[in-house]
Amino acid sequence: MRTIEPTEIESLPDVILQYILSHVSNGRDVAYCNCVSKRWKNSMACIRSLYFTRNAFDNAPHRENSDIIVKRMVSAVERLEELVVYCPFSVYGLASWLSLAGPSLSHLELRMDNLGDNEIIHESPSKLDCIGAAVNVETLKLWGVLIKLIPKWETFHNLRILEVVGARVEDAAVNAMIQACPNLTRLLLLGCEGVRSISITLPFLEQCKLDFYGLGNCSLSLTSPKIESLEVQGCSWIRVPETKHLKNLSISNSAGRVYMIDFGNLASLEFLSMRGIQWCWDAICKMLKLASDVKHLYMKVEFTGDYDALQPFPEIDFVDFFNSHPKLRKFDIHGAMFAALCQKNSLKHVDSEFVIPCLEEVFITVRSPLNAEQKMSTLESLVKYGKNLRTMVIKILQMKGSHNSADDFFDEICRFRYMHRGIIRIE
């Protein structure tokens, strides 16, 4: 590719030069372009996006900080549409930038870095308050933000995407923040600490991902008739009454228990993931019953039990389970769920016409050699009745067993793989 000489660039018409330079967004590159010539500096007013990296001003001139430099660049742009700032800034700097560019911004992304700054809780205005100046923003992404007080925002009518990653919150503040964004189609609250109860009513929301730190005892109420994808981590009580469009659902709780789930019609559900240390058995049964038409089921729940005592899964009838989920194509079974399907009585009376019609892929995690005979019988039944089974992956975790039971079980699985080597793989 031929290198373009500086004289050739200078010979370009103004409109073409402005078009080329309008695609420069990195703050440091913009600063360099401003130094080339007066013509280039004037053309930089046409840029639409400014991006400042974490270390953008490590070598800034004496007495100039990020607040001053970013303001100077923002003020030189005629109509800024996107502003991304990862470098440190103050509340006064942010207020000055948004007083200039706020009305024209459609995308705003800020690394707030005020999680551990308890002294600024009652600061007025706060960094969060300042964002209210971006009245027409369509996408708002915040990193490391303190949401302790209700932000002084007017309604963001144009906001469609709100993402908050890493936050310390109070329930009233985060609920009020969401209420100020009534037309969201995508909401992400990831790594949020301090949430106890959250209520979301968003009529246009389609995608929602919630990840709450803490004891895993949060409660969630979500009313969004258009919701299509929902991921929830850290909630014990979950209520989502309007779910007729829900296709992807993931519920996990790595710190607490899932006590209660209340969902509407899940006729459109294609993917369901259930994860966690402990779920109440009623919640598991209700979820599996509601998800009767699911096509991909991922299940990694270690124990059941309603209180502190951890209980193993009760027996799950193999035939009834697959008859109740006739559209299941992909099944990820981990530990407790697999053991529950491997009980003695599960395969005693199988109708001659029984078949698993749609199952194509099975991923099984085996953690114990206990009940090895029943487990082998269940593996054989999956192959026998799964007429369309193409792949079975068996992952064997490190087992502890006496009298070589673990070794004997592993040998049985290896023989089973050899008999069905076109389908089965061991990891």
From TrEMBL:
Organism of provenance: Medicago truncatula (Barrel medic)
Classification via PANTHER family: OS02G0105600 PROTEIN
Organism placement in taxonomy: Eukaryota, Viridiplantae, Streptophyta, Embryophyta, Tracheophyta
Domain of life: Eukaryota
Protein name: Cyclin-like F-box
Pfam families: LRR_At5g56370
The F-box/LRR-repeat protein 15/At3g58940/PEG3-like LRR domain, residue ranges: 124-210
Keywords: Cyclin
The UniProt record lists the keyword Cytoplasm: no
